[in-house]
User: Which sequence fits this backbone?
């Protein structure tokens, strides 16, 4: 994404919010961009407080419990019938999810 | 005169059911009637499943008549937060994105309720995707606090807390990522528990932040919460983070209700400045009651809690931005095309659908999470927040060397007015300042009513915290404190809540 590089800890201006919205696949309106960038700037400033503590010798914690990977027995179990899986789909065809074209026109 | 079944505790109702003094159909119908009478005012429910609830009740009655051995709560009706998927019953998670969606399977929590014979009355309102502390971020309108209909019932599980507080259900299921069971309990004068992370299966709960989310019971008494906790907790192979160990003896602890010799730690950093005077006064009285009951009180310090809110508002949105990527308009949920585009691509449809389907708070958090995880910011934000999480867990570990349980006010204030904090996200986030540390560390927490604040006559809550997997301590202390408080009040706190007559909704219409 060459157009908008993010710079500075709390530099969440309108262009940068637009870039993040693109990454998050949310087609924000101009009004939404205006409101959100102001609010997000304030929130980003506030959460930057985490930088005041926790030096390099503190290990990161991703999860509250010490976990080891769990593997289950490799055996066939009943799974969702195709009709049930497709029941909530916006569109379906030939027992599959029907999606818009995935390639760009150019 | 027939006693009003909706005023009964779940434990008493279960007793009446097992003695066949009352049938499950009668108990369920009484609550459905109550919902019809008052939920126009409260708006606790997004969907009421009259037929499903009555069918489940009839099944319990039939099995009981046949002499089958039933679960202790069989026939006691329950409300379920709309974050848990329910086969054949609409599940929206408070979002337009999922409006009208009928899930093809049951969450494990729901499957366990069904297996134990609890008729599910319906699905309760919530902040969209559980993002909020007031239920105002529901796409389907706010829930109103039964103590004052102009005020919030807490959030995100305000529908569950309000349903229980307004006697529309004796029990409800909530989920708690940063306080969404405990803070609503505090502001509605009810009881709510967030179990140890991994204590209750997350399978089938729409994920907000997977390392923080935990489902738990909402009720009007500590014993009722314990009875429900015992039904929903326990190992589940469908959740890889589920704890493979016996469920803590929560019901036994609630019945014993003993704090003699127990060390209770008051957390220095959770209280004082920023906490409403009436909330503090009720908290201090509760601590004194624990001393009177034989507990020993010590002050503990958790210095890194001052950084918990900041760490939480990086970790939670980061996980949420990733989890909510599943709402891509392809397999379920809303699909709309962008305006004025003839043959839009999947990506354009995705972006247009997510803009149309998500509310403001959801967009805020997804973008914040995307920012925190983006290249060049990851170390400063997400990485640093994970280190703060370690420091918070260490603070808890040190505190639990000095105390068996920790206590604090649950929320800094009583219920605020609907609309008051809607335009100020940071002010809204501060509601969870006392509840967030438990989620970050994965430890269990409970809120129970400490009384009414003097300045506004609204409920305040006290929070109890215990080490991981020691959930039973919450119930032992909670039940002892509840007994002491009710002796002082001369009855239950909720008996002092104003009567609802169903007239407020029509009055609002008349004004509009």
Assistant:
């Amino acid at each position: 994404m060459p157009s908008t590089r993010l710079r500075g800890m709390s530099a969440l201006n309108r262009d940068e919010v637009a870039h993040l919205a693109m990454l998050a696949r949310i087609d924000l309106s101009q009004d939404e961009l205006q409101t959100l960038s102001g609010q997000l700037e304030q929130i980003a400033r506030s959460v930057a407080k985490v930088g005041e503590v926790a030096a390099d010798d503190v290990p990161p914690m991703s999860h509250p419990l010490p976990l080891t990977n769990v593997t289950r027995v490799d055996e066939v179990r009943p799974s969702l019938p195709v009709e049930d899986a497709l029941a909530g789909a916006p569109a379906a065809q030939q027992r599959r999810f029907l999606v818009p074209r995935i390639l760009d026109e150019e | 005169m027939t006693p009003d079944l909706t005023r009964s505790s779940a434990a008493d109702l279960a007793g009446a059911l097992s003695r066949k003094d009352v049938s499950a159909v009668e108990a369920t119908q009484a609550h459905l009637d109550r919902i019809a009478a008052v939920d126009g005012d409260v708006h606790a429910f997004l969907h009421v499943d009259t037929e499903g609830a009555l069918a489940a009740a009839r099944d319990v009655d039939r099995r009981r008549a046949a002499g089958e051995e039933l679960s202790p709560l069989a026939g006691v009706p329950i409300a379920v937060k709309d974050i848990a998927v329910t086969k054949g019953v609409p599940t929206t998670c408070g979002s337009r994105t999922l409006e009208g969606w009928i899930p093809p399977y049951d969450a494990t929590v729901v499957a366990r309720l069904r297996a134990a014979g609890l008729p599910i009355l319906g699905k309760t309102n919530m902040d969209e995707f559980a993002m909020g502390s007031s239920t105002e971020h529901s796409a389907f309108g706010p829930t109103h606090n039964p103590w004052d209909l102009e005020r919030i019932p807490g959030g995100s599980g305000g529908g569950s807390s309000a349903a229980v507080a307004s006697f529309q259900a004796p029990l409800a299921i909530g989920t708690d990522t940063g306080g969404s069971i405990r803070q609503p309990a505090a502001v509605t004068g009810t009881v709510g528990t967030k179990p140890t992370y991994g204590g209750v299966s997350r399978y089938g709960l729409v994920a907000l932040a997977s390392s923080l989310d935990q489902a738990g019971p909402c009720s009007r008494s500590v014993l009722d919460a314990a009875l429900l906790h015992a039904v929903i907790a326990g190992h589940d192979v469908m959740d890889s983070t589920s704890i493979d160990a016996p469920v803590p003896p929560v019901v036994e602890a609630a019945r014993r209700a003993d704090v003699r010799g127990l060390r209770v730690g008051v957390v220095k950093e959770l209280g004082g400045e920023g906490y409403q005077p009436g909330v503090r006064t009720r908290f201090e009285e509760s601590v004194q009651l624990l001393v009177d009951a034989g507990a020993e009180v010590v002050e503990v310090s958790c210095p890194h809690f001052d950084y918990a809110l900041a760490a939480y508002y990086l970790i939670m949105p980061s996980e949420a931005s990733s989890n909510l990527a599943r709402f891509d308009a392809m397999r379920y949920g809303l699909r709309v095309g962008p305006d004025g585009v003839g043959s839009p691509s999947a990506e354009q449809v995705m972006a247009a659908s997510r803009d149309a389907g998500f509310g403001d708070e959801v967009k805020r958090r997804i973008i914040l999470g995307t920012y925190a995880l983006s290249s060049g910011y990851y170390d400063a934000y997400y990485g640093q927040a994970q280190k703060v999480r370690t420091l918070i867990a260490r603070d808890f570990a040190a505190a639990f060397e000095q105390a068996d349980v920790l206590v604090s006010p649950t929320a800094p204030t009583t219920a605020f007015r609907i609309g008051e904090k809607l335009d100020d996200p940071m002010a809204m986030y501060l509601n969870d300042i006392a509840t967030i540390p438990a989620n970050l560390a994965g430890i269990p927490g409970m809120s129970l009513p400490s009384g009414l604040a003097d300045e506004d006559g609204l409920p305040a809550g006290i929070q109890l915290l215990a080490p991981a997997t020691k959930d039973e301590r919450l119930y032992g202390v909670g039940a002892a404190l509840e007994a002491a408080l009710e002796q002082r009040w001369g009855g239950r706190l909720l008996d002092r809540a104003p009567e609802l007559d169903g007239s407020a909704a029509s009055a609002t219409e008349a004004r509009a």
